[in-house]
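Annex B, item 7. Sequence and C-alpha cells for protein A, then protein B.
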Amino acid sequence: MGKKVALETLGCKVNQYETEAVGELFRRRGYRLVDPWEAADIYVINTCTVTSASDRKCRQAIRRFRRLNPDALIVAMGCYTQHAPNEVAALPGVAVVVGVDQRGQVVDLVEKALAEEERVQMVAPAASIQEFEELPIEAFRGRTRAFIKVQDGCNEHCTYCKVRLVRGPSRSRDPMAVKAEVERLAQAGFKEIVLTGVHLGGYGQDLPGRWDLARLINHIQGIDGIRRIRISSVDPHEVTPELLQTLQLGTVCRHLHIPLQSGSDKILRLMGRKYTAGQYEEMVARAREKTPGLAISTDIIVGFPGEEEEDFLATLTFVRRMQFSRLHVFTYSPRPNTPAARLQDLPKKVKEERSQRLIQLGDELQLAFHQQLVGRVEEVLLEAPAKEPGLLEGLTDNYVRVVAAGPDELVGSLLPVRITAAHQDHVDGELFLMEAGTKDMM
C-alpha cells in the first residue's frame, strides 16, 4: 500500500473540482486517499482567500493537520497560497507551496520534497498565467453530482474583490475537452454535472470562434446519460437571451445563482458592479417570464464602506421584492490591495447587526419558496442517506433539498417526488416508486 494522502477543500466549487483532480493524480501514482480527519502521511489543503475569515480557516486547518500527525508532509495550494506564499510556507509542517497554477505537478513536488527533505515552493505571478490548466477528472468520490471546471481567472474589476489579483486573467477551457470530460462522467454513471468557473459568465472571452456559456451548454447537452446540467453562478450582465434560452432545453436546471451584492445603486457604483438595481430587476423579470418555476438565489455583501442605513434598507426592500429562493450573506471585510480597502470601514457592530437582519429575511424567503412547492411533484436526484435511518435526501432541479423515505439502493436515482411539507432548510416528500429496475430507468 502507498503512502496515505488526505485532501481538504476550503472555498468554492472550483476548488472542489481542483482538489478532486489532484486526488486523482495521487491515486494514479499509487498513493492511498483517506479522509482529512484521519492520520495521513501527506495532507493537501486547497486554500481560499475570499475573506479574512477564509485566510484564518486555512491556517487553522494546517495546524489541525500538524496535530493529527506531526511528521506528515503538508501541501498548501490555491488562492491563499497565491496571495501569501511566504506566510503559508512559514507555518510548521508546510513543505510544498503551490499557487493557482501548475497543480498538475503536485505529486512530483511532493516526491521532491520527500527525497530532498526541503521545502518546495512554486508560485508564479498571477498576471503571468495565460493558459487554462487541464486537470481532467474521471469521477467525483462519494458524489452523485459532478463539478466540471470550465473557466479560471477573472477580468472584472470589483473594488472589494481580490480574486482577479490571485487567479489572474480569465482563461477558458477548450470546449472539446469539456465535452470529452462530460462523456467520461456520463459513462461513470453521473446524471448531473455542475459547470463551474471563477467567473463562469466570462467563458469564451479568450477563445476563437465566438464561444460563450450558452454555446458551451448547447455543445454538451444531449450527451447520453446526462439528465441535468447546472449553472453554478453568473453575473447579472451575463444573463443573456441566449443563456435564458438554454433553460428551455429540458436538461438545464431551473436555477440561476446571480450575485446582486447590494440593492443600492450608490453602493453598486462604489463596488464597481456593471448594473443598477433596476437593470437587475428587469433581468430577473425576463428570466422568470421565460422559465416558470425558476429559482433565483443571490449573494449580498453587507456593510460595504459608505453603506448608510438608507442604503441597507434599500437592499432589504429590494431583496424582499425579488423573492429570492436563497440568500448568501457576506459581511464585508477589507482585502489587501483592493480599492475598497482604502475606504473607511464600518464599525463591526453595525455590520454584524445588518447581517443578522438580512439573514433573517433570507430564511423567510427560503421558507416561502419551499412552501409554494407543497403539493407539487418534482424530479429529485437522490444523493445520499439522510441522518435519520430509512430516509434519503436529494435536490430538485431548482436547488431545493428534499428528504423522503426510501431504501439506500435508490441513491443516484432521479425520481419524481410529491412535496408534502416545507421547512426553512428543506422540504419533505414522498417517492413515486416504480416497478423493479427503477434505478436503471431513471
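Protein B:
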Amino acid sequence: MREKCGVVGIYTKSEKGVSSSIFYALYALQHRGQESCGITTYDGEFHTEKGMGLVPEFFNLKKLENLKGNMGIGHVRYSTTGESKPENAHPFVVTHSRGTLAIGHNGNIVNALELRTKLETSGQAFVMPATDTDTELIARLIVGEFVSSENIVASITEVMKRLIGSYSLVMLTDNELIAVRDPLGIRPLCLGKSDDATIVASESVVFDVLNVHFLRDVKPGEILVINEKGSKSYRPFKLNRSAHCMFEYVYFARPDSVIDGIPVYKVREKIGTLHGESDDVEADFVSPVPDSAIPFALGYARAAGIPYRESLIKNRYVGRTFILPDQQARELAVRLKLNPMVSEVKGEKIVLFDDSVVRGTTSGRIIRILKDAGAKEVHMRVGCPPIKSLCKLGIDMPTDRELVASDKSVEMIRRHIGADSLKYLSIEDLMKAIGLGENELCLGCLTGKYPVEIAKHEQVLLPSFIKT
C-alpha cells in the first residue's frame, strides 16, 4: 500500500522567500509520495518546478533560486503503475480570464468522471498536455465558479458541494494562499505559525523540521485564506460526524506526527499494548518488521513482559522491488532489503509484529526468511484488523481480489503465510487505541462501509479518474 500525496503551503513576510522552506517541508513529507514532486511560488508571477523523482533528486540550488516569491505550495505524489508520468506531477497551474490558480491535492474524488463529463459537455475542454487526475478537475471547477462570482471563498464552497470523496487542498491565487479540507476530514491537514510565516501541511512533523509552532488541525469543511492581512477561517460545512482515515495512525503518517490532536506514536504503542495484554503465546522475544512496526513491538514487549529484540536488519538503500523482471529476482530483493540476525533468531520462538497484512506475500517471505535462519516458531501479530476492501478515498491498495483477507479466514491466512499463529487487532481495540469512535473514523477498508456514497458512482469510474 502507498499513500497518494503530501501537501504544504507557506506564506511569509521574509525577504528570503519560501522555496527553501517548502523544499525541506517536502523532504519531511517524502514518505507520503516518492514518484514526483513539485513547487509553485508567486512574486507577481507564478514560478513552477516539478518532475519525477525524490525531492533531493529532482530539486537543486538552481531550481530553488528560480522559485522566487513570499508564498508558495509544494506537493509530493505517489501514483500507481501506469499513472506515473510528468504531466500528472503537482502543482497544477491554471490560467483564466481573471488571473491564475495553482493547486496541490491529497485525496480522491469518487465522482470525478461524472463531473469531468459535465464540464466537457458544457464546452470546457481540458487543455493539453492532458492529465488524468482529479486535481485538474477541481481546479477547473473552482476557476469556472470564480470567473462568474469573483469571490474565491464562495467559488470553493460551491465546488465543495459537488465533490464526493476526500481532499486536502493547497492553492495559490494572485494574492492569497488557500487551504481546504473536506467536510469529513478524511485526509489530514494542519496549521502552523512563526513570527513571519503561516504554514499548512499534511503532517505536523513539517513544523518540527522548520521550527514552527504547531497551531491546530485544519477543521473538516474549513477554508483558510492567508494573505498579508493574516489568516481568515471560513467553515461553510459542519457535519455531525468526521471520518479520519484510520490508516494514518496505523501506518501512513510518520510516528513523530500528531494527526487531529492525537500523537501517532502513542497510538501505535497502545496497539502493541492491547495485543500484549490479551496474548497468551509462549515466546522468547518480540521483534518488529522494520521500521513501521517498532512502536507496536515495544508496546507489546512491556505489556506481555517479554524482551524486545531485533531479528531483521533493514537495508535502507534498496529501492522498489516490484519492477524486477522475474520471481527469483524479487525474492532476492526481499532478502537484500531485510536480512535476518541469525545469532538472534536461531532456535528461538519469535512474536513478529507488522503494521498490516495486505496480499500476504511479503509476510510469507519474511516468515520464511526467519525460519530459514533457524527460528523455531514465528507468531505473527498485526497492528490493524484484516483489510477486506479496497480503499476508495485516497490510498493506493490492491484490488479486492488481491487482498488476502477479502476471502480467507484468519486460519487460512495463517497457513498461507506460514506463521505458527496469527492474531489481528480487533476493530474495537483499534478505536480504543486511537481514541476515536466509529462515527469519527473511516473504516471502509476494514468493513466495506464508507463514509461517503460510493456504490452508485463505481459503475462509471475508470482507473485513470481515481488517481490523485
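Comment on protein B: The two ends are 15 Å apart (CA to CA).
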